[in-house]
Amino acid sequence: MFNLIKSLFSAPLLPSADIPPPAREDAPRIFARLFSGDDGQKVLSYLRMTVNARVAGPEAEESALRYYDGQRGLLQTINGLIEQGKN
């Protein structure tokens, strides 16, 4: 059972297509273009609704708070790249 779980988490999330990651200076333009259409705006709206609206109660463990904060940080990174790419 452990090997099954280990294999699931060690596999890449997406199949490798031998596509190199973009250069840092190209990322803002790519993000702005990706999220500029209707579907991109819907995705951003959904992420904002699900990530920013989540409230942890007083019984929340530190690990959950860190997880939520990481999600918010990623969403802010995406928003920041989009804004940079618009300029």
Poorly predicted spans: none
General shape: extended
Rg of Cα set:
17 Å
Kindly state the number of beta strands: 0
Return the structural class: mainly alpha
Bin the strand percentage: under 5%
Helix content: 55-70%
Distance between the termini: 51 Å
H-E string: HHHH
Q: How can the largest sheet be summarized?
A: none
Q: Estimate the mean pLDDT confidence.
A: 86
Count helical runs.
Answer: 4
Please give a structural write-up.
The chain is mainly α. The chain has a domain of 58 residues. Helix content is 66%, strand content 0%. The protein is extended and about 40 Å long. The model has no long low-confidence stretch (mean pLDDT 86).
What are the key terms here?
mainly alpha; 87 residues; extended; 4 helices
How is the topology of this model organized?
Layout (H helix, E strand, L loop, with lengths): L1 H9 L16 H8 L3 H15 L9 H25 L1
Helix pairs in contact: 2-4, 3-4
Question: In a few lines, what is going on in this structure?
Answer:
The protein is mainly alpha-helical and 87 residues long. It is built from four helices and no strands. It has a domain at 23-53 and 61-87.
